[in-house]
Structures are given as C-alpha cells and as structure tokens.
Amino acid sequence: MRRVFADRLAFATGVIVILMSILFALSRVAG
Amino acid sequence: MHLLYSLRGAVWILVYLLFILAPLFALLAGLHSPARDFWTEFSVALGYSGLAMMGLQFGLTARFRYVTAPWGEDVIYHFHRQISLVAVGLVVAHPVILAVVQPELFSPSNMREAPLSAYLAILSIFSVIALVVTALWRVALNLKYETWHLIHIVLAVVAIAAGVVHMVGSSFYLADPWKQSLWIGLTIFWIGLLLYVRIVKPLFMLRRPYRVSETRQERGETTTLVMQPEGHPGFHFSPGQFGWLMVWGSPFKITAHPFSFSSSAAAKGGCVEMSIRNLGDFTKEIQRVPVGKRVYLDGPYGAFTIGNPADMHVLIAGGVGVTPMMSMIRTLADRGDKRPVILLYGSRDRESITFREELEVLEARLDLTVVHVLANPPAGWTGEQGFINAEMLKRHLPPPFSDHEYFICGPGVMMDAIERALGEMGVPMSKYHSERYSFV
Q1: Average pLDDT of chain B?
Q2: Partner of B312 for a Cys bridge, out of A11, B43, B233, B404, CB 3.0 to 4.6 A?
Q3: To probe the interface with B, which of A8, A24, A27, A29 has the most B CB atoms within 10 Å?
Q4: What number does CATH give the domain B313-435?
Q5: ipTM given for this complex
Q6: Which of these CATH numbers, 3.40.1440.60, 3.40.190.10, 3.90.226.10, 2.40.30.10, describes B210-301?
Q7: Rounded to a whole number, what is the distance in Å from the CA of B268 to chain A's nearest CA?
Q8: Interval B310-356: pLDDT, tens
Q9: Which of residues 25-64 of B touch A (CB under 8 A)?
C-alpha cells in the first residue's frame, strides 16, 4: 500500500509539473 | 513518531517540488527574448522540468537515511522508477510538441544545418528512452544486474549532460550568465549526488570493513553470514532494517545488494548477521563465501521496524522474508520484551522452514505464537496449508484487527495478496508495514 502511495505521489507530481508548465507558458505569452 | 515522520515526509515532498519548479520559474526573472507561441513555450517548460526531474533521480538513489526514513528505501526506489516514466514523458513531449507546431525545425535541410546543441538534444532523448527500456525490460533483455547498473548510470549521466549543454547552447532562456550558472550549478549538484553514492560512500565503507567470522547453513537453502567489524565499532540498527552487502571486490564495484539483518539488534560488539537464500542468481555464490573473507556493509536502512509495545505485532513472512522477522524476535528475546507477537510463516514444505528449531525455542521464552503455513504439507499435517489469506488471518488473530501492527515480508505476489486482505479486514494503511526485498 505504501507503494500505492508512491504511485499516487508520482502521478500527482506529474500533474503539478504539467500545470506549472502551462502556467509558465501562459505567463510568457501574456507578457 | 508517526506525525513527525508524516511532517518530515511532507517537507521533503515540498523540497522535491521546489527543486523541480524553482529553476524553471527562475527563467522568467530578468531579461529574456520575446515570447513565442503558447505551445512552443509549453514544450520548453516541459523540457526544463523533465530534465530537473531526471537530475533529481540521483538524489532519490543517494541513500540519504534522513530523507528515506519516513517511507523506507523500497518505496523510494519504487517512486524513483515511477517518476522516471513521468520525467521521460515530459522530456519526449518537448520535441514532439515542437515537431507539431514547428515542423520546419525537423525538415532534412534544417537538420543538416542544425547546431551541435540540437544533436545533443537528440542524444539526450535517445539516452532517456534507452534508460527506461533497459530498466523496464532488464530481464527480458538478458542483462546481468551489474552490467545493467553500469549502463543505467552512464545513460543517465549522458542524458543529463547532453540535455544541459543543449539548453545552454540554445541560449534562448539561458543567455543571462546567472541563469546559465544556476543550471550548470544544478547539474554539478546532481552529478555530485552520484559521486557521493559511488565515490564518497564507498570510501567510508573501505575504511570500515567487516570480516566473515562464521557461516551457517540453514534450512531452505539459506546461508547465514556472521560478520564482525574490523577495526571499528560497527553500527547500531533497528530490528527489521537492512544493509547493502558487498561480498566480492571493493566497495567501488557496482555489485552491492540489499539484505535484511537477521541477527538481534541487541547483539554486542557490532556483530551482524544476514541470512541469504539461494534463489539461483548472485545469491547462489553466498554459500561459497569462506570464513575470514573481508566484506563491506552500507547501512542500516529502512523504516520496517517494531512499533508500539502495547500493540500485538503480527509478523507475516513468506520464505526468506522471515529474516527481518527473526531479527525482531531475537531482539525481543534479548531485551526480555514480552509484547504479544504472532508469526504467520509461509514455507514450501516442512523441511525448508528456515530457523524452525530456533523458533520453537523462542516460542517458549516469549509471548510468541508461530503459525506455519505449508504449500506442500507432509502426510498427517494438521496445521495451515496453502497460502496465507484473509480467512487464515481472521482464524488466528483476535479482533479488532485494526488494533494490531502488521509487518509483511516475502515474494511480491504474496505481499500484494496480504495487503489486499488487510484492506478488506479494515486495517488502515498506517498500521501495516511491508518490506520488498526485490526492489532493485
């Protein structure tokens, strides 16, 4: 089950990084 | 203790995210070239953050006890494996998105005139793909563990170094000297983590060798190595923890393997024992280790250790997964600790029950109940047979089941089944601990 936690943490990290990359791109485009 | 560990865990997750995202958002500071379209900027952000994740992989495998303690080394390695898939996905998405929005970049004429940094990007991407392929299909590719480990390190260094040179060479975001310094500094930090685990740690191990003072052949094709520290006091460990054992060659060779300590943590003189079953791979050489052989140990590691003395401890072991349980039971015996313990111990047959006789003696000394579960029971066997399951647990444990502390160690399939069974019995995740000995 601790491995399930690690799976979820990896997934959540991926989602956060993608969302932050979108924020980065939007902030660049918006100037 | 649980709260402290949870808080420490949460802090380390935040630090991890900070190390990935802060270098990305630092690119927005100061002067930079005019923005391009959204998709180009998005793909660049994915490339930068993917590379930062790749670099931090060296930190996950650097065996920092303080960092890994809240989860245990096996979970950290599992996270390392899973997050590498995410990182590779991000790194590969970078050129894929660019190829869609700017196909001219990848036209043959453009490729012919492309600068060196573009070719390094290709090298970096192929290296990360090869990294994942060799890690996921090592056995299918028939790669020896040691060969694979060396390839793994070389590919990781090439992927990161080529990726960073590509970023600096492209100079779109890293034109500012301080931003260049930040990313080059980060790269030095990542490589430093690798050097720490491959050079600094082995140097410490070299100065703290152990000598095999005795070898014992146990039931179930298992060999116990008794190891005495040579010229140093050894280390203290908690029962259930493990160490990396290096038997053949110097600590600089990539041939260390993790094994649980099977001896009592209360033993004097720094003496430690590891009981290793012949599983047909490198473990078959263990029975040939001569007395007097110099070996090296890196440890202790792991969060798999006895808990609250007021709780009943339920130890569930399959085969050689009994070794950390033996360390717990022997330690309780040495400390005169009479907490209630029940050991459910699955073995192939009666003859292969490792430590069978010693467990019978310890049952009389402690508040210990041993339930043997045999896959192939002999004629006339009245005990449990088959595999440990929820019904069996319910037969032997007093309710409420969620009040006990559970420790599980054995083959992966068995552990998955037990963890599911405990979930069905309403045991919360915080009450059970598992140790997977095949995490590398």
Answers
A1: 90
A2: B404
A3: A24
A4: 3.40.50.80
A5: 0.96
A6: 2.40.30.10
A7: 33
A8: 788 999 999 999 999 999 999 999 999 989 999 999 999 999 999 99
A9: 25, 27-28, 35-39, 41-42, 44-46, 49-50, 53
Q: What is the pTM of this model?
A: 0.82
User: What architecture is domain B2-205?
Assistant: Up-down Bundle (1.20)
Contact across the interface for B71 and A27, Cβ inside 8 Å? no
Q: Which of B13, B25, B419 sits opposite A24 (nearest CB)?
A: B25
Distance in Å, alpha carbon of B222 to nearest chain A alpha carbon: 28
pLDDT at A18 over 60: yes
Q: Tell me if residue B308 falls in helix, strand or coil.
A: coil
CB B81 within 8 A of CB B135: yes
Selection from B171, B87, B167, B158 nearest residue B126 by Cα: B158
User: Tens digits of per-residue pLDDT, B371-386?
Assistant: 999 999 999 999 999 9
Whole-number Å distance between alpha carbons of B224 and B363: 21
CB B49 within 8 A of CB A19: no
Asked if A18 and B46 come within 8 Å (Cβ–Cβ), the reply is yes
Taking CA atoms, what residue in A is nearest to B25? A24
Q: How many CB atoms lie within 10 A of CB B95?
A: 19
Take residue B197 and report the two structure tokens written for it: 């685990």
